UniProtKB/TrEMBL annotation:
Component of the exocyst complex involved in the docking of exocytic vesicles with fusion sites on the plasma membrane. It comes from Friedmanniomyces endolithicus. The keyword Magnesium does not apply. Residues 795-824 are annotated as: Disordered. It holds the Pfam family Sec15_C. The gene is SEC15_2. Belongs to the SEC15 family. Residues 53-221 form the Exocyst complex component EXOC6/Sec15 N-terminal domain. InterPro entries: EXOC6/Sec15, EXOC6/Sec15_C, EXOC6/Sec15_C_dom1, EXOC6_Sec15_N, EXOC6PINT-1/Sec15/Tip20_C_dom2. The lineage of its organism: Eukaryota, Fungi, Dikarya, Ascomycota, Pezizomycotina. Keywords: Coiled coil, Exocytosis, Transport. This is Exocyst complex component SEC15.
């Protein structure tokens, strides 16, 4: 096999040499020869190449010799040429060898240099790679350190952005290095550090916000008060704006020029940057749900810390309540502002739940402490704070329905305290009154009394106008007692203090309730504390006191109409109909009770006086003067008219006097009709007629202002009965049955049976003697009446002109009365 391989190589070299020799030009020859020499030198084939050249040369010589043998001359020439060629070949071979050695030496040097170059390039690349890797690692480390530096500077969002850039950009460039893995593992921990740091700052912010909430609420309350004042000034300047309430569209538009940022002003500044930073960071970390839940839980805990366990409402300035409501207001304003400044962070339901919880806690505290309040002024202060709180929070669109209900609870307590206090005042006024007409000493006092009383003095008789205070003579007397103006003052004060409760926000929401409560309580005060107290005093036995009570009741009844008008004009809510106090008919009924009581006292006195009448109905003595009881009776009537009843209105006074005269008439009529009196002598009849005449004369002699013509109507029946008695005493009793007289109405008011009975009693005593004027043995009188002698069979007899007695019993008169009735 080795020999075969060597032979093949020789043949290849020989073929190559022959191919070179056959080149068409010298340049082709050299171009082919030089690579062959280089390959032979490189592959250590120089000797085979020489052998191949020798072999080719021998072949050429053999061919030349053959050719020469054919053509010697040409051969010789060819040999010479060949010799020349051979010499050239030898020379060339020498040069080739030299060149080969030179090329070999150059090639070795070049290879060494190339190797050195390649080695240097590798080192340089390694250096460059190491340098770049180092730079990349240093950049990663710088960014990692920058994250912690930013954390130290509390620039949390920038730190998170740097960490995100480090993780998503720079770490990708050094993933093949161990440092990338180390830093990659530290990224979650760094993110947790950032989240913890930003939450620490947020908790600090939340703590500061909680501490600032009360002051923020105080500023909000002050701003609401300023809005109230501006709206009040606008309402005073423009009546159309007077109906616009706080937080109404009209008020909001009118107040637009007064811009005021509750969260950023000279007094308080609330910076939401920590919250925004926390939101951005947790959003970037993909932890928004967790952060939202944690924030909501923190706010709930802060809400619980905001509401105390107990509340003291006894502070004169209501500082504890103000602090509580200011804190709640500030807390709720922060919640609304957070909702407005963020998106999908605070749910409306969560904010409403916090608000409702705070309101309910505050309402529970206030309601449970209300029982400790016994001063209505303290309740007014409490109401003022609550109303200010409601109006402030209403401007932030919070639901205030529960607080409205709390205001009603406070109002119920307030009105109850007022009712108790004014009930005591009314009771004291009624119990300490002197029940005498009220004296006025000067014009100033007169003006003050009229200014507070529901009273208009009667007009002057000459001018028809209300008299001026300076024109009156002092001291003067007003008809009512001092209790009336005092009660009027209390009524006005009570109304004013009730409406003090509704002077701001309360009048908007609960005007109708307040109006209704005021009317009901005013009715209760008047009915329970005035009317009933006065009715209790009607048990008095002093007519003067009863008359003064009646006078007061009359003025109270008249005052009710003015009170109704005052209530109607003061109402905040429009009403659909007129207003009517229950006290008005109650005063009317009380007046009737007082009138009845006066009737009872007057009639009782009349009864006592009339009971003292000592008529001797069978007397034969004709008195020369009016009976003592009648003098006392008319003197009593004169006294009550001039003193006791003087202050009463004419209508009431006339009615009392008229009723008293009716009662007198009934009692006087009952005297001769007493069944115990069978007969009446003419002298007794004359005395009776004289007494009644004195009474009638007394009435007729009254002043025109007392309207005697009206009062005489109450004595009409009595006067006709006395007329009939007089006729009977004169023996003219038949006139009672005269149709013509009846038609004239002379005895129209006399009861027929009573008239017949009286005729029998009086006529039964008349005896007719000779000449019509003789007096029988039984005695006589100037009227020709005589007592009956024995033998009249217990009846009443009248002797005719012949001395015969005709029995005219009561039954005869009743028969005649029946016939009279049939004739009529």
């Amino acid at each position: 096999m080795p020999g075969l391989i060597v032979g093949d190589q020789h043949d290849d070299l020989t073929s190559a040499v022959q191919q070179i020799i056959l080149s068409s030009s010298e340049s082709d020859y050299l171009d082919q020869l030089i690579p062959l020499l280089r390959n032979a030198h490189t592959q250590t084939k120089v000797t085979p190449l020489i052998n191949a050249l020798n072999h080719v040369s021998a072949d050429r010589e053999a061919e030349i010799e053959r050719i020469c043998n054919t053509n010697h001359q040409e051969f010789i020439s060819s040999v010479q040429q060949l010799q020349s060629v051979r010499e050239g070949t030898v020379t060339l071979t020498s040069e080739i060898m030299q060149l080969s050695r030179s090329i070999e030496a150059s090639t070795e040097k070049l290879a060494e240099q190339k190797k050195a170059l390649v080695d240097s390039r590798g080192v340089r690349q390694n250096i460059d790679d190491a340098t770049q890797a180092l730079k990349d690692c240093l950049e990663v480390l710088r960014l990692a350190n920058q994250v912690h530096d930013l954390l130290g500077k509390k620039n949390h969002y920038a730190a998170l952005r740097a960490l995100d850039e480090l993780q998503n950009v720079h770490l990708r460039e050094v993933t093949r290095y161990k440092i990338a893995e180390v830093i990659e593992r530290s990224v979650p921990a760094t993110q947790a550090l950032i989240a913890e740091a930003v939450m620490t700052d947020l908790n600090t912010w939340l703590y500061r916000i909680r501490e600032t909430s009360q002051f923020l609420g105080e500023v909000a309350f002050y701003h609401t008060e300023m809005r109230r004042a501006r709206q009040k000034r606008r309402a005073e300047g423009d009546a159309h704006l007077g109906t616009a309430k706080l937080n109404s569209p009209v008020e909001l538009v009118a107040d637009e020029a007064e811009e005021f940022d509750i969260l950023n002003n000279d007094e308080v500044q609330v910076d939401f940057s920590p919250l925004f930073e926390c939101l951005h960071i947790h959003d970037a970390l993909g932890q928004m749900d967790k952060f939202r839940a944690d924030y909501a839980a923190t706010r709930r805990r802060q809400k619980d810390l905001l509401v105390p366990q107990t509340l003291n409402l006894l502070d004169e300035e209501a500082n504890a309540l103000s602090s509580l409501l200011e804190g709640i207001a500030g807390f709720a304003i922060i919640e609304k502002a957070t909702m407005a400044k963020t998106e999908d962070f605070r749910a409306q339901t969560d904010v409403d739940e916090l608000w409702d919880s705070m309101c309910q806690s505050a309402i529970t505290l206030i309601s449970s402490a209300l029982h400790t309040i016994t001063n209505d002024e303290a309740l007014l202060r409490i109401k003022g704070v609550i109303a200010l709180f409601i109006q402030t929070m209403d401007s932030w669109n919070y639901s205030v329905a529960a607080l409205d209900a709390l205001l009603l609870t406070v109002f119920a307590k307030y009105s109850s305290l007022l009712q108790t206090r004014f009930s005591d005042d009314f009771a004291e006024i009624v119990s300490t009154d002197d029940y005498m007409p009220m004296p006025i000493n000067n014009a100033d006092e007169y003006t003050r009394v009229l200014s507070v009383s529901f009273y208009s003095p009667p007009p002057d008789e000459e001018t028809g106008l209300e008299p001026k205070p300076e024109d009156l003579e002092y001291p003067c007397i007003l008809p009512f007692s001092q209790m009336y103006p005092l009660v009027c003052i209390d009524i006005r004060n009570f109304m004013n203090q009730i409406y003090l409760f509704s002077d701001d926000y309360a009048s908007l929401r609960h005007a109708s309730i307040i109006d209704t409560t005021l009317q009901s309580m005013l009715d209760d005060l008047l009915v329970t504390n005035v009317i009933r107290s006065l009715l209790d005093r009607l048990r008095s036995q002093y007519p003067g006191q009863i008359v003064q009570i009646l006078t007061n009741l009359d003025h109270f009844e008249a005052a009710c109409a003015e009170i109704e008008d005052l209530l109607l004009s003061a109402r905040s809510a429009p009403t659909g109909g007129p207003l009517s106090l229950r006290a008005t008919p109650a005063f009317t009924d009380a007046k009737e009770a007082a009138e009845k009581r006066i009737f009872e006292l007057v009639n009782s006195k009349i009864d006592d006086l009339i009971e003292t009448a000592e008529y001797d109905w069978l007397s034969s003595y004709a008195p020369q003067q009016v009976s003592l009881y009648m003098q006392e009776l008319t003197r009593y009537l004169s006294n009550i008219m001039s003193s006791v009843l003087l202050g009463l209105p004419y209508t009431i006074k006339d009615m009392i006097y008229y009723t008293a005269l009716q009662h007198i008439a009934e009692n006087l009529l009952a005297l001769p009709l007493d069944p115990a009196i069978p007969r009446i002598s003419s002298e007794a009849a004359r005395a009776y007629v004289m007494d009644v005449g004195h009474l009638v004369s007394f009435v007729e002699g009254l002043e025109a202002a007392d309207r005697p013509e009206v009062l005489l109507e109450g004595l009409a029946e009595l006067r006709e009965v006395v007329d009939l008695i007089g006729c009977a005493a004169r023996g003219e009793g038949e006139v009672f049955f005269d149709q013509r007289v009846v038609a004239e109405g002379r005895f129209g008011k006399v009861d027929k049976l009573k008239g017949a009975e009286l005729l029998e009693k009086v006529e039964g005593r008349r005896e007719v003697g000779g000449g019509g004027g003789a007096v029988g043995a039984g005695g006589s009188s100037a009227l020709g009446l005589a007592t009956a002698g024995p033998g009249t069979a217990g009846g009443v007899g009248i002797e005719d002109g012949h001395g015969k007695k005709a029995g005219t019993t009561l039954g005869d008169f009743r028969d005649r009365l029946g016939q009279f009735g049939r004739r009529g």
